[in-house]
Amino acid sequence: MKKNFKIFQIIFISLIYLCPISVYSEEKIKIGLLVPMTGDNKKLGELIIESARIALKDIDTNLLEIHPKDSGTSPTETLKSAFEFKDMGINIIIGPIFYKNLSFLEEVEDVIFLSLTNKTINLPRNVISSGVNATSQLNTIKKFISLKEIKNTIFLTPKLDYEAEIKKGIKNSKIKVSKHYVYETEPTKLTSQIEKITNYKKRKQNLLDEIKRVENSNEDNKEKIIARLEKLDTIGGINFDSVIIADFEESLKSVATSLIYTDIPPSRVTYITLNQWFDKSLLNEEMIQPIYFPSVNFENYQSYLDKYYENFKNSSNQIAFLSYDLTGLVYYLLFKNNFVVDNQIFYKKNSFKGKIGVFEINKNIITHQLNFYEISEKKIKKIF
After folding, report:
1. What is the pTM of this model?
2. Residues 144-168: pLDDT tens digits?
3. Is residue 212, in this structure, part of any structural domain at all?
4. Same domain membership, residue 336 and residue 286
5. CB 93 within 8 A of CB 113
6. Host domain of residue 110
7. Are residues 124 and 191 in the same domain?
């Protein structure tokens, strides 16, 4: 019975987007958007506001109203705007975007914040983390590893502020990792560390020793053997058949290039990384292909980007895409609750289906069921 009920929920939220339901209410429900409206991230705030409005248009409801406020750049500025929302009678807020802005929000009682951060450690009690977090991504990678029958995986994490989130994700997903290495991102240090991780110097010396042995031997055709050996970079096995690189953009490419330099190309081990949001620059990096990653539904994401451009003649991004789905989620939960605003509806464990894909709220964290993709031959291919 429970399984059937969950299936119904998944189908139902899809119908909300496709077949709007008319429910009459005397007063509109106000939803706050706590986003940057000044400063360096002003443009990002505009994308989120516009995306939430597209979502309301798609739902075709006059029951909700979007009210934006500036989250500012500091936690104190964010707190000030949050209290202003509360004074307006708004107690459901999408935002803030950044983890650093969450610090004081627990002071705002009886208000729920659907933050777009993907960080999940030490969240205030009234904040739900809705970003695509490490656990969601590693759950999906774990499924791929099982399908491909990969035996030994090493994990490479940069020494940055999300290191703790990765460790939590490894623990929560129960993914089997033979070794977890934390590396410095500075290029000269990075190469040295990758050499140690892959036992490169030993394998290189093995090759030199073998060439010398053949040179001093009486073997037939030793010139041909030496010529063949000289085409190699190393000799010797490695103790892993896949590597997860928890990095992005140019830093990801640097790590992959260092692996190739140490004679560990993607033809030898499986390269896996985290959600790259379909970074098109990876399409041209043929040396590091194939490379695999978890992400949201590509077709839906592209459809959203096209719709945004159609409405605003501008490009959007992944964070604004999240806000589109969160607007739909708020509507769905309110609909289930007969449009009675009760923050407890956000703490009941349930599965939903949005444009990103299937996800669930458990306590104050949203976990996504992601798709899995391969970049090879300059194309993005869906694995599952």
Report:
1. 0.90
2. 999 999 999 999 999 999 999 999 9
3. no
4. no
5. yes
6. 2-132+298-368
7. no
